[in-house]
Write a structure and sequence with these properties.
400 residues, alpha/beta, Transcription Regulator spoIIAA, Rossmann fold, seven-stranded mixed beta sheet, six-stranded mixed beta sheet, 9 helices, 27% helix, 31% strand
Length: 400
């Protein structure tokens, strides 16, 4: 049967020609042939030049997500296994695979799907209709590839409950794929133990993208007093404690997160030096300043203040405020670790916002290092959406 095909407008398709993965609705001239949403179709340039295969969804502004660039490489189970195998081999080279992101959507050429590995449990998040149809094959191939390294998957849990699924005309859903299992999973990262709640934790249960950044702050912690803001389940705080900080305070607005963080502290024998408080960070920091509190290291790891380009202006205000407040709590010569996990908070804008915050706090900053997400969340240069995490460490100097 002849495959349906989309033809782009003249002058469009520049993004995918540069290696990107998305074609938007306003780039398309016409579609020929019969198809259902989620089907694989051909993509042609305005002059009928073949550009690849992708899956289509008329409900989404991202009308096509590319899967293959060559006519001789149609989307088959063989191609999917090749992609899955390449993703796993890459992780084995660059990260500790005890817990890691195994599949990172577009950056692994499997657009719209994320799969995290927590010990012997997989957590999958499917965000696009076309990849949802391919999900059973992807998971079967991944289990096969892992088994070749003697890794037997104990269970799979799906966390496809993100609001963005509604943009694809899909329902939000979470639940077991296959047999039920205990969804509280113990992992070890940077020699720190955690209990990950894959059923009810944020996102897939744990933020693996900060793995190397958590390790990076350790050298600043021995003998120091540390404040970890937006601690979630305590990851930065626990790394500071394991690095022999004298005292660590972790703060988060979620009582569920704080309870889990306390459990994790106990799991690592750190409950005497690492404590947690449930509070709104924006409310707490001014109070700590009024009380004259000072810290050797302040860590700011907030959630994304914007998930759209339209809300960037308000996000800038939030990042400026939180960094200004955090800087005021750092001792002379101490350190600030600060980050943004919003894709729409572009690197130049984030740096400008921190600079403005430093001016408001009457502090000067010496950059120690700039980092991004861990390498199991690879950045595909042609796919801007794969680059989202910006992480700075600064030494904080007073105005002299």
């Amino acid at each position: 049967m002849e495959r349906a095909a989309v033809t782009l407008k003249k002058g469009e398709g520049r993004t995918i020609k540069a290696g990107g993965m998305w074609i938007f609705d306003n780039e398309i001239d016409h579609i020929s042939g019969d198809f259902e949403n989620g089907d694989i179709i051909e993509v042609h340039d305005f002059d009928d030049y073949f550009m690849g295969y992708g899956f289509i969804n008329m409900n989404s502004k991202i009308r096509i997500r590319m899967m293959s660039r060559r006519r001789e490489h149609p989307v088959t189970e063989e191609l999917i296994e090749k992609r899955v195998r390449a993703a796993w081999e890459y992780r084995k080279q660059v990260v500790d695979t005890g817990c890691c992101r195994v599949i990172f959507g577009e950056a692994d050429f499997l657009p719209g799907i994320i799969i995290d590995k927590f010990s012997d449990v997989l957590v999958v998040e499917s965000l696009a209709l076309g990849i949802d149809k391919l999900k059973p094959v992807i998971l079967d191939k991944l289990k096969k590839v892992l088994a070749e390294d003697n890794i037997q998957v104990r269970g799979i849990y799906e966390r496809s409950d993100a609001k963005v699924r509604e943009n694809e005309g899909m329902e939000r859903w979470k639940g077991f794929i296959g047999k039920p299992f205990d969804t509280k999973v113990e992992i070890t990262e940077n020699n720190v133990k955690y209990i990950v709640d894959v059923e009810d934790g944020q996102k897939t249960g744990f933020f693996l993208d900060q793995k190397n950044n958590r390790a990076a702050i350790r050298k600043l912690c021995p003998g120091k007093k540390v404040l970890d803001c937006f601690t979630h389940t305590g990851s930065f705080a626990l790394n500071a404690g394991m690095a022999d900080a004298v005292s660590v305070l972790g703060v988060d607005a979620s009582m569920t997160g704080i309870s889990q963080a306390r459990e994790n502290a106990k799991l690592n024998g750190l409950e005497d030096r690492v404590t947690f408080q449930c509070a709104d960070v924006f409310d707490l920091l001014p109070k700590l300043e009024e009380q004259g509190e000072k810290f050797d290291l302040v860590i700011l790891d907030p959630p994304a203040f914007t998930k759209s380009r339209k809300a960037v202006k308000n996000a800038v205000k939030g990042y400026r405020e939180i960094n200004m407040r955090g800087l005021k709590l750092v001792k002379e010569g101490g350190y600030l670790a600060t980050c943004s996990c919003s894709h729409f908070m572009e690197p130049e804008l984030f740096a400008k916002t921190i600079k403005e915050a430093a001016g408001s706090a009457h502090k000067r900053l010496r950059q120690v290092e700039f980092r991004t997400q861990a390498p199991d969340h690879p950045i595909l240069w042609a796919a801007d959406e794969s680059y989202y995490l910006k992480f700075y460490i600064f030494q904080v100097c007073g105005e002299m």
